[in-house]
Amino acid sequence: xxxxxxxxxxxxxxxxxxxxxxxxxxxxxxxxxxxxxxxxxxxxxxxxxxxxxxxxxxxxxxxxxxxxxxxxxxxxxxxxxxxxxxxxxxxxxxxxxxxxxxxxxxxxxxxxxxxxxxxxxxxxxxxxxxxxxxxxxxxxxxxxxxxxxxxxxxxxxxxxxxxxxxxxxxxxxxxxxxxxxxxxxxxxxxxxxxxxxxxxxxxxxxxxxxxxxxxxxxxxxxxxxxxxxxxxx
Length: 233
Ligand SMILES: Nc1ncnc2c1ncn2[C@@H]1O[C@H](COP(=O)(O)OP(=O)(O)OP(=O)(O)O)[C@@H](O)[C@H]1O
Ligand SMILES: [Mg+2]
Description:
Elements: E1 4-15, E2 19-31, E3 36-40, H1 47-54, E4 69-72, E5 75-76, H2 82-92, E6 93-97, H3 108-118, H4 123-136, H5 152-164, E7 170-174, H6 182-199, E8 202-206, H7 210-215, E9 218-223, E10 226-228
Adenosine-5'-triphosphate binds at residues 13, 15, 21, 23, 43-49.
């Protein structure tokens, strides 16, 4: 059984009364446990929309005639309650974004600890896990600094540490290198490959960067709301 399997994902955004945007038009995809996969395609083809659905932030359209299915790590997530989805996000998924999304008033260590706190760990345990995660990304010395004191590359490594602090099975990254120079991009890819290879973490990365695509084991191409021309895992 694949780690992640989606069939017939549709997502329609309504704009005003009569306008609709068909962001996803029947996505089918399958990812094995421990794969590192890139999703590539032109702007507006639905990559972020797909990531939001895989990350359980939005549900796909509900169509009784042709239902969507989404299973992740053996869980049928389309049938889950909001509460179950939130719990699954907190306990087994990590997220990385293009714009780092660190809390500016918190230190690096406090930022990294947040998901561990949300997933219900004691503060002392969360702090310990954050220290360890900052070590993984080589930023122990920056633990007490705030994001504005760090370079873009360092901020993204803090964001990676934050995504990894709960040791999630699945890491979802949307354009994680979009704001990085090539040296920081290489560093970030090295880090992600380590998590993938040493811990068997399944990683899905949306990217426009061919260098990132090349670092992944497989590239899924997206066009006009569909995954095109790729065999299943
Ligand atoms: N909240 C929203 N409301 C209405 N339309 C939306 C919304 N989010 C996305 N869209 C539309 O859905 C389509 C897919 O958007 P999406 O953000 O998934 O594309 P993308 O592939 O991530 O693009 P990019 O590479 O520019 O980030 C676009 O036409 C976009 O305008
Ligand atoms: Mg996007």
